Each structure stands twice: as C-alpha cells, then as structure tokens.
Amino acid sequence: MITIHDVAERAGVSIATVSNVINKTKKVSPATASKVQDALKELNYVPNSMAKSLKTNTYNSIGVIAEEISSFNTPPIIDAICAYFDLHGYTVTLCNLRSYSHSEYDTALLRSSLNLLEASRARGIIYVGANSGNVSHIRHLIQLPVVFAYCTASPEDHTITYDNFSAAKMAAQLLVRRGHRRIGLITGSLDQEFVHQRIMGFRAAMVDARLTLPPSFITAGDWSYELSYEQACRLLSMPDRPTAIFAMNDPMACAVIAAAHQCHLRIPEDLSVIGFDDRSCSAYSYPSITTLHIPLYDIGDLAARSLLRMLSGEKIDMDQQLPCSLVERNSVGDAPDVPNTAPIKNAGELS
User: Fold this and answer.
1) How far is CA 68 from the centre of its chain?
2) What does DSSP say about strands 272-274 and 218-220: parallel, antiparallel, or unpaired?
3) Residues 218/207, Cβ–Cβ less than 8 Å
4) Where do the H-state alpha helices sit in 63-147?
5) 276, 292 in Cβ contact below 8 A?
6) Domain that holds residue 32
7) Which Pfam families does the entry mention (predicted)?
8) Is 297 exposed, middle or buried (0-12, 13-18, 19+ CB in 10 A)?
C-alpha cells in the first residue's frame, strides 16, 4: 500500500509538505506543489479518508442499504449515488440485504447493517428498494437521516420514486393513437401499491378515449415469464381477442410475444405489445419491444443530492417522483382490421 511517506520520498520533500498539498492547509510554492502532484499520480496514491476523519473528527461517510443488489434496478441507482458522493468527497459503505423479504432473519440482517453503518460514523443513509413497494414498516429501525430510493415509506419520509400512473397512461395513449380499441392488460402482483397506480393510469387513458376495459381483458400476474405466457395464451384464444397487450414488465412482454408466436400471430401486424422497465431484453427481443424507461440513474442521483441537502440543513420535498419516458421500438403497430365486438358495458374494477 502506497503511503504519504512514499510520496514524500518520490517528490523529494517532507511529509508535512505532501500533507499540505493534499489537504491544502498551507501555501506551497507552485514548483513544489507540481512535484508532489506528479508523485501522487505516478504512485497512484489514494488518501486514507478514515485516517483523515480520525484526525479531524469529521466523518464524510454515507451508508447505502440495497434490498437486492442483483435486481435490475439497483446497479444504476448505486452507480449514481457513488458518483455523486465521490465528487463531493464522501465515502460510501454498501450493505446488501440479499432480497429482503421481511422475515425474522432478514430483519436481523437489516439491524446488523444499520449497526455497521452507525459504527462507521455514517452521516446518513440511502435505502434502495428492490421494487417500488412500501417499506414504512422498517422506518422505526433507522435512526440516521434517510432517503428512500425506488420505494415508498410514510408521508413523513423523503422518497425518490417514479410516476407509475403517468407512465401506464402514456402506454395506453400510444395504443389508442394507433387505433387499438381492445387492449389487454397483464399486471404485476396486486399486493403492491404501485401496480394499482399503473392500473389507474391505464384506465384513465381508456376513459379519456371513451373506451372500456372489460374484466376479461385484465389478468393479474406475479411478474414471472411463465405465468405471463399462460395468461397471454388465454387472452389470445378469446373469440374477440385483444389487438394489443400492455405487460407490466419487459420479461412479461417477452412472454406475450412468445405466446403470440404460439398462436400464429405476427408482432406487430396482428398484435401490439408494450412492456415496462426498458431492460436489456426489450432491446434484444425479436421484434424489439416498445417499453417505458425508468430513470434509474436519475433516481440515484436525486437521492444523493437530497441526502446531502438534508445534511446541510436544507428542506427538501418529501415525495419526489420522476417521469418515465416512452421508448418506441418495433412491437407496436396500427390496429389490425378485425371485426369489432359489441360495446362492453360496466367495465368493472380490479380489486
């Protein structure tokens, strides 16, 4: 490990001079400072932030707790958090709960992570959810200033999420503009609040277009490819099948396309498909899938900015929602010329 002694020896100056250059505590001549900077670069010297914290009794440390670091949404969020705090001279300690499921074991793991962050003198925490669910039940465990990213907590907490309602409404509006009147919907797990926000947004677009959504065209899923495939096959085998299907994540949309192929339907000539998330599978599917892009990096960046503002004593908005964007690819086309069904009354509600 390269130390300040090595840098001083390479530059031919005292340890105190190197320290003054690094910390900018005393004025050093430009020529001497240049020699020290050259030595720092040649040796790839990295200052020991913990030693500096012990000496000055100031701790620029932030904790990040991720429910599941392998979840598709987590890496871009953490990347943005680390980039922001690195720019502002903070170290980041990352704890992974490995698919937090609210069990007794997982709660103990969360407590252990919090103890670790408190022991490392973290000034604040960013909690990154594995999905957009509500985590208010763990709020009482966290004593440090906290910002929740990609999840929601209580109204009194600072949360950074995205606008599910408007995103789903955008998807339905696109299909309506392309002439679709019979649109199917494969949802995620109905025990998650944000799923209902997407359903409401989807319905709002249908109401605006004076269209109805029959209960038979709505099917509740569990986010899996397998169940989505079965549900898509059921929808597509109906006498008056949907001409378009909105699936609430991209793997589910891939399953819809597979089911369409099984039913000898072409995408998008016979059936249009929209996904959600903008995962890599949506771009590499054949045909590529039109989807909603979640601004994951922006969520992480805003969470980091919000926490730093909190630590500076500034007031920030409690609930900040970022807009999603529509990524148009090749899975949506004009509605096919198929016989219309009779008007459907009493569309019903999904509960």
Assistant:
1) 12
2) unpaired
3) no
4) 74-87, 104-119
5) yes
6) 4-47
7) LacI, Peripla_BP_3
8) middle
Predicted confidence at residue 347, as pLDDT, reads: 36
**Using one digit for the tens of pLDDT, what is the confidence trace for 102-133?**
667 777 888 899 899 988 889 999 999 987 77
CATH number of the domain to which 148 belongs: 3.40.50.2300
Whether 349 is covered by a domain: the verdict is no
CB 49 within 8 A of CB 120: no
Last residue of a domain, one of 242, 267, 290: 290
Tell me if 198 sits within 8 A of 187, measured CB to CB: yes
CB count within 10 Å of CB 211 equals: 19
Q: How far is CA 58 from CA 53, 55, 61, 121, 122, in A?
A: 5, 8, 9, 9, 11
Peptide bond into 287 cis (omega under 30): yes
pTM: 0.80
Task: Please give the structure tokens belonging to residue 298.
Answer: 């922006």
**How much is the mean pLDDT over the chain?**
88
CA distances for 54 relative to 21, 50, 59, 93, 302, angstroms? 19, 6, 8, 17, 29
List pLDDT tens digits, range 272-322. Answer: 999 999 999 999 999 999 999 999 999 999 999 999 999 999 988 888 999
Strand partners, 65: 95, 127
CA distance 252 to 145: 37
d(CA 286, CA 283): 8
To which residue do tokens 């903070």 refer?
90
